[in-house]
UniProtKB/TrEMBL annotation:
It is a multi-pass membrane protein. It holds the Pfam family MS_channel_2nd. The chain crosses the membrane at residues 172-193, 214-240, 252-275, 298-315, 321-346, 367-391, 403-424, 436-461, 481-505, 526-549, 555-584. This is Mechanosensitive ion channel. PROSITE patterns: UPF0003. It comes from Photobacterium atrarenae. The keyword Transferase does not apply. The keyword Transmembrane applies. InterPro entries: LSM_dom_sf, MS_channel_C, MscS-like_channel, MscS_beta-dom_sf, MscS_channel_2nd, MscS_channel_C_sf, MscS_channel_CS, MscS_channel_TM-2. Keywords: Cell membrane, Membrane, Transmembrane, Transmembrane helix. Residues 741-762 are annotated as: Disordered. Belongs to the MscS (TC 1.A.23) family. Residues 571-637 form the Mechanosensitive ion channel MscS domain. It comes from the Bacteria.
Length: 762
């Protein structure tokens, strides 16, 4: 395939025109945008040509490669090879000429596009800062009223002229009943039928016991709550557009009517989904019922405010209003919008953190809500201040993007909770789904998807978004790999799908497949956990391969990282490897009674880094896995729950030893937990100071009940031995205290004569 021809003259003409506009510092953004679009197209063409190598160029490069590397400076090579290398290099330089020209054109177009973007931004800021007449002077209000009257007279005159045409009047009157019927039907549908249908749907969702059916009904209800208003709005639009005759004074108004109604419908829909006045259990923002109703109405009126701004722009095109009159109309609209935005901020600040919000957002969500309400109040104040002093464009920029951003945020919240409920239902563990990485993934995905719309709302141009997209698509070269947005998205999507399939497979194994087998619970847990590790590892490998990343260049980094792991993270790696060994070798499993590191209890969970055991005091002890592999572990229930029990009994000297032995064996044989094989045994252990000591040794069915069984046997033995007249002695001691008799003898009374004499002298 031959290399495409380069349109050099067209590229030169466009570049020259762009350079002239930049040097003149043109204030006409429309001309700048046209030239910029042409430059962007030519830049894309130059990029493709600069990166394209035809067969001739590739053949020359292959021949140079076959000759081997050129000799170093001062070196030499055979004359034949040197001559051949020189000729190939000259031919390659000639063949690569168009590529070099395309590279230069690409860089030139890229520079000019950046300069034009800077000029457009400067012009936009100048427009925002342009000052119009202040609307606070009474004379401006009189002027606005007079011009509005003039506009009304113009519409009336055009209506009169329209009705003077008999044919136009006849056609309009023929369609008038249909248009009026459409308006009345759409109004009745929106005012009566729609609320009744919504209440019935919400009631059906509340009364449905099945979670799956409730979820499907909730999704259906969400779609219908957008479809019904859209149908009603479509009827109103068609009715009003048909009702309005073809008049020059209302041409723009009729064209923007669908956009005005669309803002109102979307605002009402979002307010309904956020506040749910008739369904508190489905309410995303946890507020009282009265506040929920006010919030929904406020959202609807904010949509009306956006429609009012569009209406003012239409009036400017349909009639020659003065700048002062437009400033007065803008002041009225901005005041209404600011009051509504302040009211919505106040209502949101009264929201109590509900259970759903606490699970999904927590403290960070409260901080974000407080910041948003503060920004909304600041925006409402600044917009009124700006429009009052004559900066109506700046006032619009202060409040309109804020209102639209709140609508976009509300839409993002609705989508987030809808996807979260759907995916958590798939995972069948809503708590884990809401508190795990799924919520973080959804927030990141929705934020990235809506970021371009947010940028457009705040003044970015579509060309700016396209420029950012181009940079992301081209990517950044890291070694032999090029990291671009397509690569990252492919990597994340494949990895997410792989993890999703792994979780689903784990759920099927845990709840459907393994319970039907004879595998014990510990083996089930090991299989499920191992499946998770293998699935995540395969998902990562497949994701890297699907993204086309070449990780060979990271071998040096991986080697250095392994050294760092060996020295700094050896404990963590040791615990991780020990966890894998525990899951494969299974010296312990969940539910086992073990003794390790001075602790005794039941194994509750074997994780990658550590194992959690629950002691008999119901304390959770986290043991590093390396202690379980490298240390000594006593597992009482590894192969079976059978275990030996020893009960110590002492009887008095002179007791019938045969009877004692019979009583001990009989107590063991009669207990249901004691095994008959191996048989219980009684051992005469010692003739102690106060008693003859015996041990009753037997094996029980469940060693986990050892303390209960020992207690039962001791109760039985004490009662039986006492009933048979066999004494269970206890130590007795006689205590003699030396010198006690001397201390108890009476002593002579004290001599008070000296004191008496001293008292008499006084």
């Amino acid at each position: 395939m031959a290399q495409p021809q380069i349109p050099r003259q067209a590229w030169e003409d466009t570049a020259s025109q762009a350079e002239r506009l930049i040097s003149e510092q043109s204030r006409d953004n429309s001309k700048l945008e046209v030239v910029r679009n042409q430059l962007a197209e030519q830049r894309d063409q130059a990029y493709k040509l600069a990166t394209y190598k035809d067969v001739e160029v590739r053949a020359l490069e292959a021949q140079l490669t076959a000759l081997g590397p050129a000799p170093a400076e001062g070196g030499s090579e055979p004359e034949v090879i040197a001559t051949r290398r020189e000729s190939l290099e000259q031919a390659l330089a000639v063949a690569s000429g168009p590529i070099y020209y395309a590279e230069g054109a690409y860089e030139r177009a890229n520079l000019l596009i950046g300069e034009i973007d800077t000029q457009i931004r400067e012009n936009t800021v100048s427009q925002w800062l342009s000052q119009s007449p202040t609307p606070l002077l009474p004379s401006r209000w009189q002027l606005a009223a007079g011009e509005f009257l003039g506009y009304s007279r113009q519409i009336t005159a055009q209506f009169t002229t329209f009705f003077d045409d008999p044919e136009a009047k006849r056609q309009w009157l023929q369609g008038l009943p249909l248009f009026i019927a459409m308006i009345l039907a759409a109004s009745a549908f929106l005012a009566r039928l729609q609320p009744w249908a919504f209440d019935r749907i919400d009631l059906k969702v509340e009364q449905t016991p099945s979670k799956s059916r409730a979820l499907m009904l909730r999704l259906l209800a969400t779609g219908l709550k957008l479809l019904f208003p859209a149908l009603g709005t479509l009827g109103l639009t068609l009715g009003f557009q048909g009702f309005l005759p073809e008049l020059a004074s209302v041409r723009t108004l009729a064209a923007v009517l669908p956009a005005m109604l669309l803002y109102i419908v979307l605002s009402d829909w979002l307010g309904l989904l956020l506040f749910r006045p008739t369904a508190p259990s489905q309410r995303i923002i946890a507020v009282a019922d009265t506040i929920a109703k006010k919030g929904k109405r406020t959202c609807l009126m904010l949509g009306g405010f956006l429609g009012l701004i569009i209406l003012i722009g239409a009036l400017k095109k349909d009639y020659d209003f003065s700048t002062a009159s437009i400033a007065v109309l803008t002041l009225l609209a901005i005041i209404c919008g600011s009051l509504l935005l302040w009211r919505l901020a106040t209502l949101l600040s009264q929201a109590a953190p509900g259970k759903t919000e606490q699970e999904a957002t927590g403290t960070a969500g409260k901080g974000v809500l407080a910041t948003l309400t503060l920004l909304m109040k600041i925006s409402s104040i600044l917009s009124v201040v700006f429009v009052s002093i004559g900066y109506d464009n700046l006032a619009r920029q202060a409040i309109i993007p804020m209102v639209m951003s709140m609508g976009l945020l509300a839409f993002a919240i609705v989508v987030y909770f809808g996807l979260l409920n759907l995916l958590s239902h798939i995972f069948a563990d809503q708590e884990e789904a809401k508190q795990g990485l799924l919520s973080v993934f959804l927030v990141t995905l929705i934020s990235l998807a809506l970021a371009p719309l947010l940028a457009l709302i705040w003044g970015a141009r579509t060309t700016d978004i396209a420029e950012v997209w181009r940079l992301l698509s081209d990517g950044v070269a890291i070694g032999d790999a090029r990291l671009s947005l397509n690569v990252v998205l492919t990597l994340l999507i494949v990895l997410f799908v792989g993890i999703l399939l792994t979780r689903w497979l784990q759920y099927v194994l845990r709840h459907s497949v393994l319970p039907k087998t004879k595998v014990d619970i510990g083996a089930r847990t090991a299989l499920v956990t191992g499946t998770g590790y293998i699935g995540v590892t395969l998902a990562a490998i497949i994701a890297v391969s699907a993204a086309g990343l070449n990780l060979a260049s990271l071998a040096v980094v991986a080697g250095a990282l392994s050294v760092g792991i060996g020295f700094g993270l050896q404990t963590i790696v040791s615990n991780f490897v020990s966890g894998i060994i525990l899951l494969i070798e299974r010296p312990i499993k969940e539910g086992d009674w073990i003794e390790v590191s001075g602790y005794s209890g039941f194994v509750k969970k074997i994780a990658v880094r550590s194992t959690r055991i629950e002691t008999f005091d119901l304390h959770d002890v986290v043991i590093p896995n390396s202690d379980l592999i490298a240390g000594t572990v006593k597992n009482m229930t590894l192969h079976s729950f059978h275990g030996r029990l020893i009960a110590n009994v002492g009887v008095a000297y002179g007791s019938d030893l045969s009877l004692v032995k019979t009583i001990l064996l009989q107590a063991a044989e009669e207990h249901p937990m004691v095994l008959s094989s191996p048989e219980p045994a009684v051992l005469f252990m010692e003739m102690a100071d106060s008693a003859l000591l015996f041990e009753l040794r037997c094996y029980i069915r469940d060693i986990r009940q050892v303390f209960v069984v020992r207690s039962d046997l001791l109760f039985t033995l004490y009662e039986t031995l006492t009933a048979r007249g066999i004494t269970i002695p206890f130590p007795q001691r006689d205590i003699h205290i030396k010198g006690l008799d001397e201390s108890l003898r009476p002593t002579s009374p004290p001599d008070h004569s000296v004191n008496n004499k001293r008292d008499s002298q006084l």
